[in-house]
Amino acid sequence: MKTPTHPLDDLTAAEITAAAAVVKSALLADASDASDDEIRFSYVTLAEPAKLAMAAYVTGEGPVPPRQAEVIATIVSKMDAYIFVVNLGDEPSVASKNPVPEGCQPLFSPDDCFLAEEIVKADEAVCAEIAERYGVDPADFGTSLICDPWSVHVATPDFEPLKWRPDGRAARLIQCFLYWRNDEADNQYAKPIDLLPVVDLNARKVIHCSRQPGATPPKIGLKTNVNYHRASLETNSYLPTKHRQPMKPLDVTQPDGANFNVADGRVVTWDGWSMRLGFNYREGLVIHDATFEGRSVMKRASLVEMAVPYADPNPPFERKCAFDVGDYGLGYCADSLELGCDCLGHIRYFDAVLCDSRGEPYVTKKAICMHEEDMGVLWKHVEYRNGHNEARRARRLVVSFVATVVNYEYLFYWYFNQDGSMEYEIKLSGMLSTNLLSVGERVDGEGGANDGAPRHGVLVAPGVNAQVHQHMFCARLDVQVDGTNNVVDEVDLLTGCVGKASGIGDPFANAFGPVKTRLVTERAAARVCDQTKARTWRVSNPSVINPITNESVGYKLVPFTRGASQPVLLTGSECAVTKKGEFATKNLWVTPHDDSERFPAGEFTPQGAPGQGLPEWTESDRSLGGEGGGDVVLWHAFGVAHVPRPEDFPCMNVEHVGFSFKPDGFFKGNPAIDLPPPTIAGSKEDTSAGTCCAANGHLANGH
User: Fold this and answer.
1) What is the mean pLDDT of the chain?
2) Catalytic pick from 310, 332, 408, 410?
């Protein structure tokens, strides 16, 4: 196992083992009646050094920051969860120990989710009701009953007492949406079950079970097959599918290898870019210290939360929502990627070392993928008077990972372009979370009673409803545009005579241009996108002046450059999801940097109180550094409002969403003007149907 050489290197397997052993010893010393088997770990991860300590280390003005691990562990029998910081090195020791705040719960590890399914399948009352309600054989439950574990966030009046034990201690609750499948290749989401058990993981039992109201239970379409496995396509019951003929190969080859270089563990250099890659249980991929041509752009960037509310108020689905980053951890959900499928070309993979609930390390092979992509034309001009043609193709570096969070796949991509811009894209795929359509649930259509659409979703299979929902993401961008001191301006494109006075006004009503508004405090910097004004947000360094523009150098955050513009969180102001996911009610927040401010919905989302994270931090309305700038962090919320379609089932094609961070007066001119002409030996002209151009070829004029 590699020995860490940098303070930001992820924990090794040996370090995880050492940290877990120290925490076990500390817990057992304080609880002598507890056993080793009772200790469960939520995570063991790197405790990143403070930003100022790292800056001093990098400049040589300070020592190497101490190597530490952050650990959360629970004594199950006592329901006590603690946050540890462990000093690593030759003699690991506990640096600090603090209880998890009362009422909060640590995230659910993969082991927790498997345990929840095990508990539901072993519950005699739940199994008996399923058998009676749907006429299925209990002997098949082991392989046919499927449980999707979801955190519990919304406590309805009838459910509120279940949040707490009689002794006043918080329960560790997880709810399980149930499905049926006839074999391992069967699509369970075509066969939902309307029961919703709630499991207390500490007590290891089902403590409550909700169901759809109505005297007549909805039936499972056991014979309705809507599958996506290739071998099962032709057996679909209502979606007749024939296998397409395979297309001729489209191979991406790089005979001379890739252009990126990896050194010092995970320091990547590529065509002017340099960055360090990190990976942890919660955020998954982290970008550290991104620079272009030796100038700093981004100190740290990652996805730090997503709120996924479902819009069905009918019981038991009023509790259907998730905060996937905080609930389950994107790193824990990361997939092992496949060559030639998830990535193409000359690929470099990176493994991720994580820990299970016993504190034992395990490796997710090929968790991160890095490759290059051709992106078409970057810039081009033809001088129509003489036919001189200059064109350059765009290439980008792609760093990505994929997380399967229960039913959904989230594909996360950081793009680094040759013009100095960064982009972030999320592709959403996977399976729709479905429920059975209850009797009387459909709105009356033209043909009479109960023949129309569901009130709160879309029919994607006979009797199967896919509810309307949102995916609201939040990226944390610790910007560092040519240095630490940055200011943020909102830039709107407005009609009329704007900017510097021209002296003539706007007599022809054709004037429009950008207007900047400086965001000076946290509350003033809580903003929403405005597509009608082409709104962007510019981060600039007042101490560095562009000699061409005579203005401060900068980068601009451009929302929704990957996918159509989408609304902020659509749940009502009194909704528990809104109160807990307030970060998603704005598209932009700006805060002064604080090492402790990491997650916009709070450190603990399962059963955590509302108002944590960004709304709490910004309540004091701190200054963002004044005209001289300060060390600021941008929090960008963006997302997808998903009204399901039948075309999304059984497996949905990707939806795109994302943003760009583009140089805006950062350079004196086009930083990609010096690219050499491309040489693409593999390209060939298809002349099977003649040439595609007119005989005299060049179009002499036009735009």
Assistant:
1) 90
2) 408
Q: Would you say 301 and 286 are in contact if contact means Cβ atoms under 8 Å apart?
A: yes
Sheet order of strands, 487-495 included: 348-355, 361-383, 388-405, 408-417, 422-430, 652-663, 552-559, 536-545, 487-495, 512-518
User: What is the value of pTM for the model shown?
Assistant: 0.94
What's the Cα-to-Cα distance from 581 to each of 9, 499, 602, 640, rounded to whole Å? Answer: 31, 37, 9, 15
Same fold, 110-235 and 261-442+461-663: no
Round to whole Å and give the CA distance between 2 and 524: 47
408 is catalytic: yes
Higher per-residue pLDDT: 150 or 203: 150
In CATH terms, the fold of domain 261-442+461-663 is: Beta-galactosidase; Chain A, domain 5 (2.70.98)
Residue ranges of domains in the chain? 13-99, 110-235, 261-442+461-663
Instruction: Give the amino acid at 613.
Output: G
Please state the separation of Cα 327 from the chain's center in Å: 12
CATH domain 110-235 topology? Nuclear Transport Factor 2; Chain: A, (3.10.450)
| Catalytic status, residue 111 | no
Q: Does domain 13-99 have CATH number 3.10.450.40?
A: yes
Q: What are the tens digits of pLDDT across the range 448-475?
A: 444 567 888 999 988 899 999 999 999 9
| C-alpha angle 114-118-120 in degrees, rounded to nearest 5 | 120
Lowest mean pLDDT among 393-402, 516-525, 567-576, 673-682: 673-682
Which of 10, 112, 148, 324 is flagged as catalytic? 324
> Rounded to 5 degrees, what are φ and ψ at 565?
-60, 140
